[in-house]
TrEMBL record:
SMART domains: CxxC_CXXC_SSSS (SM00834)
Region (Disordered) location: 42-66, 117-143
Pfam families named among the record's database cross-references: Zn_ribbon_8
Protein's name according to its UniProt entry: FmdB family transcriptional regulator
Superkingdom of origin organism: Bacteria
Amino acid sequence: MPLFDYRCDCGARFEKLVRSWRDADQACPACGRDSHRLPGRVALTGGARPPAGPDQAPTSWEGTGRGDREYVAAWRRTLDRRERLAEKYPELSTKRDAIAAHEGVFEKAPLTYKELAQRSASSGDANQGAAEAGQARKAPSRI
Ligand SMILES: [Zn+2]
């Protein structure tokens, strides 16, 4: 079965194995709406393929299922694997960090998966981590 990339209007991106390329667009795991298949990148089951990188990660808070703990953790693991692989294969490396949210309080200083993971480390809760990051954005800088 071919593996396809999908993108939803909410910002979520995901891969799905489908029976054939003629299969209809798939429901988004984050919001449930129909998503759009991205052209190109098709890999057959079992084929070697690097883990998804920052360019494929959801880039909005809604796209992460509003901080869905398992969805965010799965992306964090995927991005970590990609980063480790990029140490061996520089062509896989990406300069910028993947963005987990860019709306609202994060418009000027986007929330990266790295920061989200750091801020969620103690609570284990992505929503709490994002709330902390939001507070940090709002707090007046004390320099
Ligand atoms: Zn969606």
